[in-house]
Amino acid sequence: MNRTLLTIFLIITTCSFYAQDFAPIGAEWYYGEGYAFSGDKNYIKFTVVKDTVINGRSCRKITKRHKVECNLRDFTEYMYSSNDSVFYYDTTFNNFQTLYVFDAQPSDSWVLEYTDEDDELDSLITTVDSVSNIQINGQSLRRLHVTYEKIDENRNRTHSSTIIEKIGDVKYMFNWNPMSHIICDMNSSEGLRCYEDGDLGLYSTGLADSCDLVYDWSGIDEVNSSIQIDVFPNPAETYVSISISDFNEFNISLFDLNGRLIKSKNVDGSDQKLKLSSIHKGVYFIQIKRDNQVLGYQKLVKQ
């Protein structure tokens, strides 16, 4: 190979590795991790570790600390970006599929395919409902408000989300559940906590006090007393009523999963309700006290 052709080859190869705006080496995503039958909180972390080549295509290798089990994807992903689109490698089909299209306009759509738990072929249609911009650390990034439509042999299902340029879907990188016949009762993503890379810097969504927050609910369960505490409705939307065996007067304190006091109220027999209309959706715990003595706790889900 002569010197001119070698130089051109090196330039093209270098550009294919370093012209990507999505998933630069060292980039990290933190997603909140919840569990179907527990109040425990953990986090899912994606990290871009290196450049590599799959099927002759220059791409980035991404590893995961945890993963959404029902998403049926591996602990390692391979992705690349080109012309405002992001592609991911699918081991089932041995090819790359379109994950995001950042320059899409309202009514534009793209399709990806996957197999469910029975290895049956299904598809996911992503349709852009509207577009906007968001300012993050001085950069104006495109934001796509989308609807996902899952097409399988049973029935079509839809869900909505938001995709941000350079970051991806704010709920989870691969925001779909491929299972057709089974209800997922394992872990799930509760949304993006943080994203960080060398160019954009650290972006925190405020979903948690820290990117790597871990919360063990078991300590709360251990201090529950034998006193009967009824909380209803649970889950609740606008209010919750509390009744306690043997007592009509007591104090209610509502805490979030970080242990922060959200609100407190002294109740008596005539008013045992706690208003929740101003409280964000999520999991909380209610502490019941009487005469400065903790009587017990109850979990509460705010819808």
Topology:
Blueprint: H1 3-18, E1 28-35, E2 38-54, E3 57-64, E4 76-82, E5 85-90, E6 95-101, E7 109-115, E8 121-136, E9 139-151, E10 157-164, E11 168-169, E12 187-197, E13 201-204, H2 218-222, E14 229-232, E15 239-244, E16 250-255, E17 261-267, E18 273-275, E19 282-290, E20 293-302
Antiparallel strand pairs: 1-2, 1-12, 2-3, 3-4, 4-5, 5-6, 7-8, 8-9, 9-10, 10-11, 12-13, 14-15, 15-18, 16-17, 16-19, 19-20
Provide a concise account of the structure shown.
The protein is mainly beta and 303 residues long. The protein has two helices and 20 strands. The radius of gyration is 24 Å and the shape is elongated.
Category from helices, strands and their pairing: mainly beta
- The residue fraction in helices comes out at under 10%
> What is the helix tally?
2
- Topology as H/E string? HEEEEEEEEEEEEEHEEEEEEE
What is the strand tally? 20
Strand order of the largest sheet: 6-5-4-3-2-1-12-13
What would the principal axes of the Cα set say about the shape?
elongated
Mean pLDDT comes to 85
Q: Structurally, how many domains make up the residues? A: 2
Main beta sheet: strand number and arrangement?
8 strands, antiparallel
* Low-confidence residue ranges: 1-19
How far apart lie the N and C ends?
66 Å
Radius of gyration: 24 Å
Content of β-strand? over 45%
Protein name: T9SS type A sorting domain-containing protein
Keywords: Signal
InterPro entries: Secre_tail
Signal peptide: 1-19
